[in-house]
Amino acid sequence: xxxxxxxxxxxxxxxxxxxxxxxxxxxxxxxxxxxxxxxxxxxxxxxxxxxxxxxxxxxxxxxxxxxxxxxxxxxxxxxxxxxxxxxxxxxxxxxxxxxxxxxxxxxxxxxxxxxxxxxxxxxxxxxxxxxxxxxxxxxxxxxxxxxxxxxxxxxxxxxxxxxxxxxxxxxxxxxxxxxxxxxxxxxxxxxxxxxxxxxxxxxxxxxxxxxxxxxxxxxxxxxxxxxxxxxxxxxxxxxxxxxxxxxxxxxxxxxxxxxxxxxxxxxxxxx
Length: 271
Fold this sequence. Notes:
By secondary structure, the chain is α/β, with parallel strands linked by helices. It contains 10 helices and 5 strands; from the N terminus they run βαβαβαβαβαααααα. The protein is globular, with a radius of gyration of 23 Å.
């Protein structure tokens, strides 16, 4: 048995049919918990249409659509510590209902709305044949939300016993990560996405996405390299000095010592 240790766990799905493989995977995932896990079927949520693309939410995160989605997302999804997204592969993506969910969740603009949470995925279908979807799911956790991508479990494994073990391990891992507040360091998707959003929100898109700008400014997202004053001063000086052959030879000859010294400093860091 697994205890949630006071953490709120929510499973979002586009159809909890118990006879389907996805439904059975969801049941197997929730079965070990001593607490009752909330399973939310997106078909039961008051979502009356997809995103209109009007961008009016850019000012203060207010969606113009008057249905129940905004309240549902803020009060039931964002309040969870662990969120598991469960769906079936449909062609190159998931279902149209999942597309609608992700589109409507954009009322939070480019601001991460699930920061620090544990996000995981239970997927039924040939996920391994759609690498683009795998990357989309990972980026949804990291680049989009600044959350921890806790992993993906699919039913492509060799046997039911193996799938049971994967789901059991997945449940244990989610709770353990949530208890420790673990968020893995950002990879290329996270760092690259951050730089793209940062530059565009600071620049040409700021007048539209004003809520993003306020968040980015308040949370130190505008971490431009030109703010590092010592390099701003040192770069033109060093570039001028390397025009002299003697200095250039000595400078490049010592670069390996510089890089290995940085690695040693990082390795010996106590924090």
